Amino acid sequence: MPREVREREMLDAAVATFGQRGYRAASMDEIAELAGVSKPLVYLYLNSKEELFTACIRREADALLAAVRAGVVEPGLAPDEQLWSGLTAFFAHTAENPDAWSVLHRQARTHGEPFAAEVTRMREELVSFVTGLLRDAARATPASPDLADLGDRDVVGIAQALVGAAEALAGWANETPDVSAKEAASTLMNFAWTGLGNLMDGERWPK
């Protein structure tokens, strides 16, 4: 079997084990057994439990970022529709990959460096991406002086708040039965884009 295929199978097994058992409780024996290989082979490919966990974080962070970016590639979408598509892609990916989201959102954040640094990198890229969407929205909405007059610090702050809210909402959605990606995206769009005031007046996502 080619090395990349074998390594992918090991990472799949590791993500499932870390996501369900936690970093400390997960054992290399469990991961090797789930991957259908010997423990020495896991060490040969990935050196240590720490390096294996780091590789899992990097792979799953890259997959999540790619899913969000792919969600807004459709040309001609209005800024609010781009944000809606990106949020829907984010929540769909985290729902479809609960073990990966557990690794990123729970395990990596609670076990110190170097794991937390990998998640910080992912979060910074998400914030940068959302910041770009918001700046595009401001440029595309000249009729709204409040939006057009947003400064860089305001835009970055709003992007930070959106990403943080999305992370918290994904954790809630994955633990709450029957919450769809569209429902989670609608909740955040109604709060962040429509605004509580307009929401009280009956404006809701999806339109």
Can you describe this structure?
This protein is mostly helical and 207 residues long. The chain has one domain: Tetracycline Repressor, domain 2 (Orthogonal Bundle). The protein has helices spanning 3-21, 28-35, 39-46, 49-70, 79-96, 98-110, 115-139, 145-148, 152-175, 181-194, 196-200. The protein is elongated, with a radius of gyration of 19 Å.
Number of domains: 1
Structural class call reads mainly alpha
Strand element count: 0
CATH topology descriptor: Tetracycline Repressor, domain 2
Cα-atom radius of gyration: 19 Å
**What pattern of helices and strands is seen along the backbone?**
HHHHHHHHHHH
Terminal-residue CA separation: 50 Å
Shape: elongated
Count of alpha and pi helical runs: 11
The overall pLDDT average reads: 86
State the major sheet: none
- Fraction of residues in β-strands: under 5%
Mind telling me the CATH class? Mainly Alpha
Keywords:
single chain; mainly alpha; DNA-binding; about 210 residues; elongated; Tetracycline Repressor, domain 2; about 75% helix
Write a short abstract of this structure.
It holds the Pfam family TetR_N. The protein has 207 residues and is mainly alpha-helical.
